[in-house]
């Protein structure tokens, strides 16, 4: 609202340098911006102290983050979250260690010198202090790092198919290795592809595996995971081949129908003695997960089976598991608290988003998104949107250029693009060059479309229109003179996805724009009617693509398909239940993991 015409970079700088300004942001984005602004403010204040050093400024910044206790608790909790917190804490300690070393070597240097010192490093500085090798430590090395050394016990872990051997070609982007082979006469072409290249990669991978498995003098352990997602590498069979049919304990000679048939892991263990069922992880999260799983299993088993079917299970086991979880919860293990379990808590609220008498604010884009899939709109409205990509920023720039030059020629639009291109703040490189070429092509198509279109009467025209309980509010890209007291609405699109000709006839966005014209919500002479609307696509193709929608032709009572659609969307938005609808955009939906129609978003409990 108060940003004016400044770029997003300037607005971000203003917000992050002023905590009071960050506190005025909407609640959905305030927390992160305010936290960063307070950290920056603490760092700037600490630099003003007469005896400020890199260490004192760094400590002020770290204290202002408030992450110390949170990361410590997460690290002690174990699991994937704990491992990530552990790595983050290690990185912070390394940064403090670098600051301490810098201050010792450069006493009196300003804090900014430490920043310049870090930025100038191509590789992290090595410590000059001697480090003692612990006797009770384990060396974690790559095969190349282990070459020439030997240990009593060696573990080669993670020998998975697709990971080892990794048969992807190792050549560089420009094919320098293939060129070297050609110049040396070892290759007949410079393609660097085909069976020979694959065979060379496999040979290198096999040589590396041989180095790794030959470092043990007493015991070698090779591990891999076999489940629905992972498959062991063929290299595992080189270390411990599967038993043949004649081996009574082998893979094919063992019992073929042992057990109850319901445990695939158990059956595989009987067929392949190399397989071992792995228990829960040896950390607090793994312990809680195992206890919860066993507790639920015991409760379901006790409720759904007869006394004879329950067998000789310990009747005190569920109580013991519940006591264990209660003790862990009292000890501060968050995952042990039942209120944190998925599906345990009831729905927080079943109240509709708006009351029956409340008006509903609707934009043309919401009419289209709600009519396509109400669930996606609801989740995205709560913050489930993907971050803006370069394509979206480029589209906004093209829209802005079209607004500033509604009758611009190709040369005028190209000059405006060249002047405003730095606003995107893209990093120099091949992707930016490709984006620039795409922008120039868009401007060329836009120029052709502007020259072929009618006289623009309004550009970026705002409107507001009441329709039933809905208040329709939006901005129309372009309103053109169609003659005889009529106008045509044009909506500029920079994406590549185009609706079909039949879909454009009932396009929700174009329908709402026509409603604004028919309802007198634009700054046009009274009695101006709509002659139709069109979508103008400048994202690809030789020329701009068009999708046309005819005039609404409302009924005598003023109703039309567009008006009915807006009223239905208002009722849907004001509801408490939102239905997921499968559509052609499901494959690129950013909230797929929350959609019951998608495999990754399906309910895991009733």
Q: In a few lines, what is going on in this structure?
A:
The protein has helices at residues 8-16, 19-22, 27-47, 54-65, 68-77, 79-105, 111-119, 143-146, 176-183, 195-213, 235-239, 264-271, 284-304, 307-310, 317-330, 364-372, 374-381, 390-404, 410-420, 430-452, 501-505, 508-518, 561-573; strands spanning 151-156, 216-222, 360-362, 456-467, 470-483, 486-493, 529-537, 545-549. It is of the alpha/beta class and 606 residues long. The radius of gyration is 33 Å and the shape is globular.
Comma- or semicolon-separated keywords:
606 residues; alpha/beta; 6-stranded mixed beta sheet; two-stranded parallel sheet; 45% helix
Describe this structure in words.
This protein has 606 residues and is α/β, with parallel strands linked by helices. It is 45% helix and 11% strand. The chain contains 23 helices and eight strands. The chain has helices at residues 8-16, 19-22, 27-47, 54-65, 68-77, 79-105, 111-119, 143-146, 176-183, 195-213, 235-239, 264-271, 284-304, 307-310, 317-330, 364-372, 374-381, 390-404, 410-420, 430-452, 501-505, 508-518, 561-573; strands spanning 151-156, 216-222, 360-362, 456-467, 470-483, 486-493, 529-537, 545-549. Strands 3, 4, 5, 6, 7 and 8 form a six-stranded mixed sheet that branches. A hairpin with a 2-residue loop joins strand 4 (456-467) and strand 5 (470-483). Helix 4 (54-65) runs antiparallel to helix 6 (79-105). The longest helix is centred in the N-terminal third of the chain and has 27 residues, at 79-105. Residues 250-266 and 306-312 have low confidence and may be disordered.
């Amino acid at each position: 609202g108060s940003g004016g015409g400044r770029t997003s970079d300037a607005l971000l700088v203003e917000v992050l340098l002023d905590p009071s300004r960050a506190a005025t942001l909407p609640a959905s984005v305030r927390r992160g911006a305010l936290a960063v602004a307070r950290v920056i403010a603490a760092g700037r204040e600490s630099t003003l102290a007469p005896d400020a050093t890199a260490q004192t400024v760094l400590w002020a910044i770290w204290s202002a983050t408030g992450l110390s206790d949170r990361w410590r608790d997460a690290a002690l909790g174990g699991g994937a979250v704990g491992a990530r917190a552990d790595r983050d804490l290690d990185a912070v300690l390394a940064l403090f260690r670098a600051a301490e070393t810098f201050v010792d070597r450069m006493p009196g240097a300003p804090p900014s010198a430490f920043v310049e010192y870090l930025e100038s490093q191509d590789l992290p500085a090595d410590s000059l202090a001697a480090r003692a090798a612990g006797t009770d430590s384990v060396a974690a090395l790559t095969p190349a790092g282990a070459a020439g050394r030997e240990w009593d016990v060696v573990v080669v872990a993670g020998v998975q198919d697709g990971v080892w051997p990794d048969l992807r070609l190792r050549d560089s982007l420009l094919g320098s290795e293939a060129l070297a082979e050609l110049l040396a006469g070892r290759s007949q072409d410079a393609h660097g592809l085909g069976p020979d290249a694959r065979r060379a990669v496999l040979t290198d991978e096999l040589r590396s595996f041989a180095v790794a498995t030959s470092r043990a003098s007493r015991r070698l352990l090779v591990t891999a995971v076999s489940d629905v997602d992972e498959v062991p590498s063929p290299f595992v069979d080189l270390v411990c081949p599967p038993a043949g049919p004649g081996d009574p304990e082998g893979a094919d000679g063992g019992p073929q129908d042992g057990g109850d048939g319901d445990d695939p892991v158990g059956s595989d263990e009987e067929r392949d003695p190399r397989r071992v069922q792995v228990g829960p992880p040896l950390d607090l999260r793994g312990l809680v997960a195992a206890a919860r799983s066993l507790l639920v299993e015991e409760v379901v088993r006790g409720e759904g089976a007869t006394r004879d079917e329950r067998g000789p299970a310990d009747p005190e086991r569920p109580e013991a598991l519940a006591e264990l979880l209660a003790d862990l919860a009292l000890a501060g293990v968050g995952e042990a608290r039942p209120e944190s379990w998925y599906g345990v808590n009831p729905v927080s609220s079943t109240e509709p988003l708006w009351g029956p008498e409340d008006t509903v604010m609707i934009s043309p884009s919401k009419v289209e998104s709600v009519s396509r899939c109400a669930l996606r709109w609801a989740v995205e409205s709560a913050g489930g949107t993907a971050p803006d990509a370069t394509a979206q920023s480029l589209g906004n720039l093209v829209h802005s250029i079209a607004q500033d030059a509604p009758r611009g020629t190709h040369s005028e639009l190209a000059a405006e693009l060249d002047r405003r291109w730095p606003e995107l703040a893209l990093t120099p490189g091949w992707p930016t060059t490709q984006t620039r070429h795409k922008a120039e092509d868009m401007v060329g198509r836009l120029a052709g479309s502007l020259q072929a279109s009618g006289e623009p009467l309004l550009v970026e025209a705002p409107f507001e229109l009441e329709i039933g309980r809905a208040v329709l509010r939006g901005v129309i890209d372009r309103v053109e003179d169609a003659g005889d007291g009529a106008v045509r609405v044009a909506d500029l699109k920079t994406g590549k996805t185009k609706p079909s000709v039949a879909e454009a006839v009932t396009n929700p966005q174009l329908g709402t724009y026509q409603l604004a014209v028919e309802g007198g919500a634009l700054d046009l002479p009274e009695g101006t009617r709509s002659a139709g609307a069109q979508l103008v696509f400048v994202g690809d193709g030789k020329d701009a693509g068009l999708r046309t929608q005819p005039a609404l032709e409302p009924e005598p009572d003023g109703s039309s398909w567009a008006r009915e659609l807006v009223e239905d969307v208002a009722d849907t938005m004001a509801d408490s239940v939102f239905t997921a609808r499968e559509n052609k955009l499901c494959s690129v939906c950013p909230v797929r993991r929350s959609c019951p129609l998608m495999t990754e978003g399906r309910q895991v409990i009733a």
